Amino acid sequence: VHQSKLDFFCKLGYGKQDICKVLENLGQEALEDDVLKELIRMGSKPQALENQVQPSPLKLVARGSCSASPGSKWLGEDEGDSSDHLRPIVIDGSNVAMSHGNKEVFSCWGIQLAVDWFRERGHTYIKVFVPLWRKEPPRQDSPIADQHILEELEKQSILVYTPSRKVKGKRVVCYDDRYIVKVAYEKDGVIVSNDHYRDLQNENPEWKWFIEQRLLMYSFVSNRFMPPDDPLGRHGPTLNNFLSKQPVLPEPKWHPCPYGKKCTYGNKCKFYHPERPHQAQLSVADELRAKIKVPLSLGKEEEQCNRSL
Length: 309
Prior knowledge:
single chain; alpha/beta; Rossmann fold; 5-stranded parallel β-sheet; zinc-finger
């Protein structure tokens, strides 16, 4: 039991010394949730966060070329994501697999499709959480397809099993959603799921904001993993900015006014006027008032000078 817990938290990135201290204080039979809370309370952080180095200077990239360098391929967890410009990805494995299996079969191929999609984009930190009992042989009430994919992803340190056990013939399962939200929150990453986690939103106000702003929903179209181009709605950021640590603001697009110099909208006109690039866009009435005020003010100044003389 000690070794299994030690391996589990080592996969999450915590140091062995901190894990052993917590297990000594709480006992070997402590639940994983309690151990994780104690690690957070002690201020222990995953090694990927502690071993962060100073970011390398930015490199100029030719316009139109891919921003990812040739060496930014999949390197596993050991490489870390400190120098990566893309956010860490935490995938709700059960939600993705059931969605790909039309809510009837736990399709592991759907998890592989999602992982491959983020790999091709250049993400270096990808974690998939699946309950431990999914390693058991499939049954009629819980069919599983392509179960060997889970073993392959576990060997690549991508898939993490949330603990479960049997007590008097009954299965005791830990809440895997809490693991997903906790790891994504600590890594400042993105949650890939179609679940809204409303119970966890009510549990913690910080989690509520994080889930609302960092939840990436998706669809499967003919065995193709497709997240939306506007994850936060029509007026929100694009998918590239949503998955990037340093979003790029779009360049403003100026459309010339179809009326040209005959436009009478003034500053209310939403189009671009090349004849007044650096001038305040005044309405026609305001421009006429400004022209009238200038000679009147000059006349008043001449009268004042004459009176003083």
